[in-house]
Design brief:
The structure is a homodimer of 213-residue chains.
Chain A (H helix, E strand, L loop, with lengths): L3 E8 L3 E3 L24 H6 L9 H10 L2 E7 H5 L22 E5 L7 E2 L5 E5 L3 H12 L3 E4 L3 H9 L5 E7 L7 E2 L10 E10 L2 E9 L1
Parallel strand pairs in A: 1-7, 1-8, 3-4, 3-7, 4-6
Antiparallel strand pairs in A: 2-9, 5-6, 8-11, 10-11
Chain lengths: 213, 213
């Protein structure tokens, strides 16, 4: 069956975004530091339609994370930020041509019609839970894997439910001190992980985990 | 000058001990999982006067952490637990023959006389701050390095003050959910780290950081 794969940048103190995330600063204060390792890479630039860039030990890791993905699931905050939707649904953080180029399923409590964007990205809003979103994404992925896009909240729901097959944490040696934590809502849930690979690269350590079922 | 070196086991969600630490369970609930990688090693057993044991990718890391150390600094909780000292000073967690075999300087607000234990461990109680404890430890180390023994509290004071030269985090893929966090009191202190080595081993990933001054 199609695997659910999750890769995310996290600070050494466990944050995946800084404090005070908003429409103008979706990564929160200091959060941009979590992604500095990726931005110079040719792989990242190409995936965002840009030329040039570097190749280093992170390149292969980033390439892998993009390979064989047929659909994405994400939480509402990842689509468009908490509290940002009024009566007039807005279009999310991602602009006219989001970088997904595939069907994206957004887990939310607020029903709304699907949105098709330029470049092949569609946003479908799923109100009946994380399992349903994953099921729809698997169907849309047509044999490829499904990526879990984040954020912290929905990721923890998937992790707790034992639905993530493969998790890569891009561990960034900064301390944010506050913000959105990746593991703060799991209580003492019995989540068992095994590190299957550790790769050092400039400004980041890539840690790949198998979720033991 | 003698370097201050810190190595510590941490859960993936940032805890170095579980909740409800007490005299009978100094590691807190679930905290023993953080040290399971070390216990079977021949190196660990030898350092605690025992024979036998395994050799794996962790062995060299543990050996390094024990090499060329001439003195240790630690916090009061690491010596003997918070609230455990009454009018009658108790002897700490470490028993009659502590595994340090060197001078140990305990940072505390409570003055008391030094204690000499079997096997060469002495505990000296320092009431005038972390810099003073480090200075005394450096002198006692006589040219060797100083180990920071923990716990979380005093480690963060040393980190914030820029006094740690070298930090190794033994990252254990468990989620404790609660307990003593390694990085919860730093706020937005400007602590800059660089990962200089990542080693995968059974049940643990060893991440070595240089503290950028």
């Amino acid at each position: 069956m199609a695997r659910l794969r999750f890769h995310i940048s996290m600070s050494l103190d466990g944050f995946i975004a800084g404090p005070n995330q908003n429409e103008e600063n979706p990564l929160g204060e200091g959060g941009e530091q979590l992604h500095e390792w990726a931005l110079p890479l040719a792989t990242w630039r190409a995936s965002h339609g840009r030329e040039g860039g570097e190749v280093n030990a992170s390149s292969r890791v980033l390439e892998e994370s993009l390979e064989n993905i047929g659909a994405t699931v994400m939480g509402r905050n990842m689509f468009g930020g908490s509290g940002a939707w009024g009566d007039e649904p807005w279009e999310g953080w991602w602009g006219e041509e989001p970088p997904f180029h595939m069907p994206v399923f957004v887990v939310t409590h607020h029903p709304r019609a699907a949105v098709a964007k330029q470049g092949g990205t569609t946003f479908t809003f799923v109100t009946d839970g994380i399992e349903s979103a994953l099921e729809q994404a698997r169907e849309a992925a047509a044999g490829k894997d499904v990526a879990l896009g984040g954020g912290a909240n929905v990721a923890q729901h998937y992790l707790k439910a034992g639905l993530i097959d493969d998790m890569t944490i891009h561990l960034v040696p900064v301390l944010l001190g506050d913000g959105a934590q990746l593991f703060d809502k799991l209580g003492n849930a019995d989540v068992r992980l095994e590190c299957t690979r550790a790769i050092e690269a400039p400004g980041v350590t890539h840690l790949r985990y198998r979720v033991v079922k």
